[in-house]
Amino acid sequence: MKQVFIIASKEFKTAFKDKVFLVITALFLLLSIISVYIGSSTKNAEIRVYLDIVELLKSQGATSFPLSPKLFPLAILQNIIDYVSIIGAVLAVFLGFDAFSGERENGTLKLLLVRPLYRDQLVTGKLLGGGLVIGVLLCVTLVFNTLLFSIVSGLIPSFNELSRLLVFIALAFCYMMIFYIVTLFVSIKTGERTFGFLIMMVVWVFVSFVIPQLADSQRSFAYTLNATAQTVTQMPSDTVISKGIEIFSPAVQFQNVGKDLLQGVAETAAMNVFDILSRQALALLYMLVPGAIFLLASYRAVQKEDVT
Amino acid sequence: MNATWTIARKEITDALKNKLFLIILGMLLTLTVVSVVLGAYQVRVSVDNYNNSIEFLKSLGKTELPPMPNLNPISASKGFVNYIGMLGALLAMILGNHAIVKERRSGTLKLILSRKVFRDTLLNGKLLGNLTLLAGISFLSGAITFIAVFAIGNVALSAGDGARMGLFFLMSFLYMAFFLVLGITLAVIVGNGNKALLLTVILWLVLAFVFPQIGNTMDMDNQLPGGFFAQMGMTKDQQTKVLDNFKFYETLRDGIEEMSPTKHYERVSFALLNVKPGFETNTPLEVLSLKWINLLGLTAPSIILWLIAYMGFLRREDIYQS
Questions:
Q1: Whole-complex ipTM
Q2: Whether the predicted pLDDT of A225 surpasses 80
Q3: Which residues of B touch A32 (CB under 8 A)?
Q4: Which of B21, B223, B241, B253 to mutate to test the interface with A (most CBs of A within 10 A)?
Q5: Which residue from A281, A291, A286 is spatially nearest to A215, judged by alpha carbons?
């Protein structure tokens, strides 16, 4: 076990010495902080727009007014879902793309494996180190966001809100770890680190954008008529095909569960955390299964690594 | 000029042997086919629905028949905008980075420059070869779209629609060219090839995802499904009137979005493809002149980056060092 911790601590230290990784980390933290500000200013603007609309309609002699938009406190933080799903995933790729191929290219893999260290311990150490880095980043994000949330909204998060936030961070950790695990697997299987990195970028584009886009193209649109202004609104709704396509994208599953947790969906905004998790059990399963498969595949691939 | 062509030809041959390039190209073309076929199929369904309605009305003895609605067959390429925005940019960055890094890694940069090849000739050849590849990809995607709309959608494009489509693929080419030049420039300036690639990807993330994402989250109309203003029952005039009170906020949002070439590409493309309403009656060239700022946003950064690449490459003194 001692060897695992040594490898993990080395991974942790190396990550924070890498300038490029520090740039992407700074970007991630900056965006997560900005997202709170944007979220709160957009919600404030929304309220002001609503009041302006009511004033405008009153001046035009209208007697019925649209309902006020429902606002939930945690919805201020919901932009972070997109940033974790996009930048968080890339951050995990940056962290893991040379975790194994880097050791191979530098010749340190041979050196490590002639010592009393089992191959599975090497993978576990790498995973633990990567997990520590991701965990620390998410903890910093949680602290900053909770503080900013209190400062911007003037509210102290309730137990339910705090537990939603904590579960969201745990979910974000799992999501980023999935990308880290898949990257580690690619790093084990590919000879050159740049090639592995680019393969992961293609995977990321596919999972985060192409699949959601394909699913979106298969949604059906219902048309609703607004009685006040006689305008027609297009409302997208899921179809069996769009739902089926989405299964292949952990990013979509993460966003769906994340929106429920951060009160982005009005129907689930008042539910407790356990109800949300049981409601989204399938989405969680679809998200976690690829990670589990690639985890096992990574252990298996390392056992077969030829270091002679 | 002969040396430039020789280098350009070598770039094309190298790219066609690059596994990653071929994988991404295969994905991009497959997605083009899928999105265009789906789009063209939707056009066909609409045409069939209209024809069935006409037949039904005729069978009832009606003589006043409704005109055919505008099916906008060129919008079949709408999905392609997003695929080029992501995979096209990635493909171009890989080409740009490899163009310089492969020569440096294999030691052939020294070898080429010790012959009668000027540094600017080498850069021009690299650019020409890779631009030819990107032009080929744009042309191939355009050809697939034209054939799919005709064969599956059962619609013959008018000359105006054809010109719009042609200009749209030209915009796709310019967009990919920007990321190609970005890849080359960073590979020239940053000595370490791996680091240059990582920095290019970070810049791509910021330009193609972060800025548009910030703009999206600041867009009040994006906050509710179906649109905030539509949910509030606002007409277009009322919406404009209300937004007049948020001039600074909207200018800031627009300013952030305009820092992104992806957003410029999306805006000019959606106008050309009639996805964004308001440009239906304009000629293709009128659309371009109305969207000149987006055209400038696509071309000017590429030119500036290319000049930086020139200056960087012509002044590098470490090329012959081992």
A1: 0.81
A2: no
A3: none
A4: B223
A5: A286
